[in-house]
Amino acid sequence: MTPPQVLLWPHVRRLLSLQPFWALAFATFFKALEMANPAHSAPPLSFVHYLVANVIGALTTLAVAAPLWCGLASRCWRQSDAARQRHAQEGMYALLPRPLMLTLALVVFLISAPLSHGLWTLYMRGTPGMPADPTAPATLLIAMIFHGFSMLVIFVVDLFRVRAQMLRQRAEQSQRLHAQAQLQRLQAQLEPHMLFNTLANLHALIDTQPAAAQDMLAHLIDYLRATLSASRAGSVTLREEMTHAQDYLALMQVRMGRRLQVQMDIAPELHEVPLPPMLVQPLIENAIKHGLDPLPEGGTLHIRVYREGEMLTIQVQDSGQGCSALDAPLAQPGQGFGLKCIRERLLASYGDAGALHLDSTPPAFAPHQAACGTTATLRLPLRPPTWAPAHS
Fold first, then answer.
1. Residue 145 lies in a domain
2. Which pTM was predicted?
């Protein structure tokens, strides 16, 4: 970005946004002073006159200060890494050295005060019923005193406003870094967890089904190549997430064969929705391990993705052993790690807006089966995930 884009326009827009407030506030203040001391102004000025005077003073000051500030700040910003760092961390008032900043403020005052008084004089001379003598409404000295007072108040308030904003930004950045580090820790724990489970399955097939073990090892290599890099990304699209889930299902279907039937129902318009990586695969792993695999006949896994208002809903249903599967991951030591990671990552990425629910109900896709089955439902906003503060 060019220096004016970084140094000029954001600050000009910020200062201009409050000018209507300051014009009204100072017009009220100066009118109150006139009413308290009517002998100091003859004839009395209306509230509109004071309002116009403050608008002229503010715009004149900004017109003088903006090019002078931008010229000095741009040179300092280009030549000094430390200056750029100060501007990024502490705002515009920390960019220039303090003596130079004070000198700039004095120069702006000495130029803008007489200039705004001259423009005010022209305005008064064109106002019917007002005297042509510019010293009648206010002498140049009084005008400069009021102009300096207004400049001091506006820029001191803006200084504290900028500092407060930079403090908030640093706090938010610290929270994002903390949440990001927590997510990376959770992901680093989740990936070996999945890998160890898959290797245990592979070990069981080596002696009994060596051909299936070789096929499973080939799928595992493809799966790791596709997912390990993606799992460390801040977000992935739903299309990428479901591709990784299908890679994992290919591994499981090698081991379970016909015992695992998979159905997917995903709305095409949702394929590009962003979400945190590695959310669906742990739910699939949980459904297979605790719901379908313990049954000799296996069962059906149904994955549905659809939109509800501004929320994305992902359901993983299994026709497995149901009620017992609902409690097993949480009742046995070392179990339920994937579900715990999902909940913590939802909290870190969406705050209270994301949720994971487990339910045992007769699955709609297989109502004839006696087993209850288990449904895991993820609900998260359609907006991209952010590094929201994580809660312990």
1. no
2. 0.51
Residue at 151 is within a domain: no
Helices 140-208 & 98-125 angle (0-180, nearest 10):
130
Tokens representing residue 139 in the block? 């002498």
Both tokens of 229, joined, read 């890099």
Residue 108 has pLDDT above 90, yes or no: yes
Please give the residue range of the domain that contains residue 127: 3-138
Place of tokens 């999945």: 194
What distance separates the 2 farthest-apart alpha carbons in the chain? 108
Q: What is the CATH number of the domain that holds 367?
A: 3.30.565.10
pLDDT tens-digit map of 111-147: 999 999 889 888 888 777 655 454 444 578 888 898 9
Within its chain, how far is the Cα of 12 from the centroid?
24
Q: Which stretches does DSSP call E strand in 154-278? A: 236-237, 260-266, 274-275
**Distance of alpha carbon 191 from alpha carbon 276, whole angstroms:** 14
Give domain status of residue 109, yes or no. Answer: yes
Residue carrying structure tokens 């003598």:
133
Kindly give the interhelix angle for 19-36 and 140-208, rounded to the nearest 10 degrees.
150
